[in-house]
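Bug #2210: token dump truncated for NUDIX hydrolase?
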Amino acid sequence: MSEWTVHGSRTIYTSPWVDLELVDVEPPGHARYEHHLIKLAPVAATVLLDDSERVLLMWRHRFATNTWNWEIPSGIAEQGENLAVAAAREVLEETGYQVYASTLEPLAYTQPIGGMSTAEHHVFLARDAVRVTDPVDTHEADRIEWHDLDQIQQMIDDRRIVAGVAVAGLSQLLARR
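Reproduced locally. Full output below:
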């Protein structure tokens, strides 16, 4: 199979967080049509692991899916921002823990909806988190708790961890044990 031909695109909605385009595409051997494309800034996320083999998770509600679940700190990287710096910033804002971008280890990379979006998720591993303040983004989580790494797979299986960026990062951590 060969690449699709892109004949052009037009923006139908734009905001600081998302752009929606209609792209004039032609799959090999098929007629041209307009395909939706959602353009998003990259997401930077962090799995925090302590010396006791525990992972820091945030209990939160997602209105779009009406889902409560445990998640890892994550957020959108600002224009031109280094991804590790963005990940460290999000950890501090959402949890009050400080990690240093220079010590973060790449853990996972995903394109969660590659068929219709430019979304990229970059997940890092932090082993040196220190609680330095209260979270700034108090609307991000109802609770922030440490969970034994041995419980994480069951939490994923029980759908208590469902966010794609969290599942990808935590699954990679478990696979590398």
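Output looks complete on our side. The mean pLDDT is 96. Marking as cannot-reproduce; reopen if the truncation happens again.
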